[in-house]
Amino acid sequence: MALVSNSNTVGAKLSTAEPTLTGLPPVASKPEGKNGVPHRLTGGALLAHKVLESEKRLLAPGQKIIIVPAGRSNDGSRNHVKIQVGNTSSDSSDGKSTPPRRSTNKLRKSQMARSCTGLRPPSLKSLQNHDGSWASIAVPDLGANPNHIKPLSDVVSVRSLASIGMGSTDGKKLTIRRVPTSPSELLNIANPTTLLDDDDLSSCSSFTGSLSLTNGHYRPKRDHWANKLQFILACVGYSVGIGNLWRFPYLSYKSGGGVFLLPYFLILCVCGIPMLYMELAIGQFTRRGPIGALSQICPLLKGAGLASAVVSFFMSTYYNVIIAYALYYFFTAFRASEPWTDCDNKWNTADCWHPEINKSRPFISQAPAEEFFDRKVLQLSEGLESPEDIRWELAACLFFAWILVYFAIWRSVQSSGRVLYVTATLPFILVVAFLGRSLSLEGAEKGLEYFFKPRWELLFSSKVWVNAVAQNFNSIGIAFGSVISFASYNRYANQILVDTLTVSFINGVMSLIVGVFAFSTIGNIAMEHHTSVENVITDGPGLIFVVYPQAIAKMPFANFWAVLFFFMLLCLGLNSQFAIVEVVVTSLQDGFPHWIKRHLVCREILVLVVCCISFVLGLPNITKGGIYFFQLIDHYAVTNSIIYIALFEVIAVSWLYGVNRLSENVHHMTNRYPSMYFRFCWNIAAPFLIASVCIFNLIDYEPPTYSSNNGLYHYPVWAEAMGVCLTVCILMCVPALAVEVIAKTEGNTFFEKLMKSIKPRLENIEQKNGIHEKVASVTVEGDELKELTTLIECKLSPEIARALKQNHQNTEIVK
């Protein structure tokens, strides 16, 4: 009896002329070919394949198929051929195998040729000692004894194998449709309980390695988080970023203090958590970034995914500037005396005020920390009209920040996951430490009273609710694409509900902790300056680099705490920047895989190109007028755009794709349906709430401003017009791609094309008449063949197993 253990990829061509299994024992195969490997079967048997010697040399490492023919070769010995299975290149028209064009395949071929020699076969007796119903076996690893045979688990019945069929082929495209199976069986296929995990075989740093095929394009197979903790740390690290340290306190101040907490947490429960659950679901199910996921879920609105990627790209250009500020302060904090604590420096003016020197002029003077940030770090110009020179000290810090980002994400989640153990855990410890210290500061109770005391008259203000939605989206990362990208690296059966609740809970708690820390510090500064909280708090980076350093300077061992604080800022900023750049890189990989494979070869070069472009585009932010440009891009490209992108996204998923379909997808992955609460939020609450916020955001539009030692700066009309055009260009991605999709969709009328463009295009899972089917596509382009396959293990029915055992006929079980 000949047995085969199939791994994730079959390294050979499939024949379209082969009939399917009819429930009868297969007939004898043709004489064996080279190395004792049987040729394809010729009766009413399973679809088989012929492993050619030339194909063996092309097989990639890390994946294996074990073929054990029961017959004897010409030398009378039984053969056990262990083949490393991976990417092959074939020409379907003439049946000949052609090596891939990359020069790296020469090394691969020589390595694989050596791996196919010197292997000893297991005895037939050892096979017969196992239950005869098992039709597949596996050797644990390459270093194990080849005689050690272990049966695989019971996953798919022979009825499934009987329905393997072929579509027609014209030499360019070959479609294989396999098995109507139950959802539970498909779950086991995606996450088999065997020695071989299909997820484990899909990591590939280079584009010349294992690849998946989607809609005729090449796409690198997804890496995976090493464990769930890395994924949780990535999501939490992104949500609790530097923005939380200034946006949440400032929006609380603008929205009535404690009254802001009520709409914030209400929207978190009604919109934030359900939207996070939805994005995790579509990312994990499609295993794509925002563009690829929405192009499968709803092709008509895939432009929302592109808009998310564009927003993340703009954000990557200026967000690293904050990390550059943190690096500058971090290195400066090692000086014996902190330069932001006194007025004896060359950049200080006559208006510099220190409470120990002069307590009578707080309203007309400036604190040393404020002058250090404006006059030393930024060397602030008069406005956007006069950007002046680049601050080369900041340029060096920005360059160093991009080096940190590059080496953290160049290997995808394999590298960033390890970095997160430090950058995502240490800030939480430090924030709690600073919280305890800030509560002991004199005047802290004044700030806390302002934070928790509600002004109920503002509860019915639309601006309060708009701010609550904006903070939820900015904090959790809704519609930025980061959550979808992170989830695409999950294993297929990962329990996303647990992840959703964990991330949301930690984010909510950390928001409260940050708020208490911020207002305790602000209360101390307000008391010292003999002023109100309103006169101390400010928007933007000034809150971090002006207010907080003043409070830290009054702590014992101030230099030590300052170093820790700015290192915490560095970690928080890097966590967010990892996610932002990952969205851009993942979107490019999903959107242009073939071009990237041909011109950039590997992910490392792609990440380098993205980092270099973002660094160059970020240089205007570190000129003497760069902070004005920073605020303008942040307001129009991110804050204003993201709410409308979220609206398009929720319409695409909840209404056009459908809540019922999404629930089936979640059940298919986790064996658990979403609750009625989540379905209600997806279908009704979230869409209408986001739509209302979009309307009020237009009605209550406020142009951006910037407050500095030069006074309140109002942007010129041309700058506001440029910002509005930037927002429109980002949002135009949605209708532009919708027109393109409709134009390329087949149909006789516009309505027919429109309906087809709404239909999902999921190439890996389809649902037909309540039955899930796994579909694999094989497209041949020139001399290259890529396969999208799934691990299939089988256990024969007792009747067929007995017939096979009695007749000892050769059987070859393949995908």
Automatic annotation (TrEMBL):
Keyword Membrane on entry: yes
First-listed, main subcellular location of the protein, grouped into a coarse class: membrane
One CC-aspect GO term: plasma membrane
Residues in the signal sequence: none
Disulfide bonds: 343-352
Composition bias, Polar residues: 85-102
Similarity annotation: Belongs to the sodium:neurotransmitter symporter (SNF) (TC 2.A.22) family.
Designated name of the protein: Transporter
Species in which this protein is naturally found: Laodelphax striatellus (Small brown planthopper)
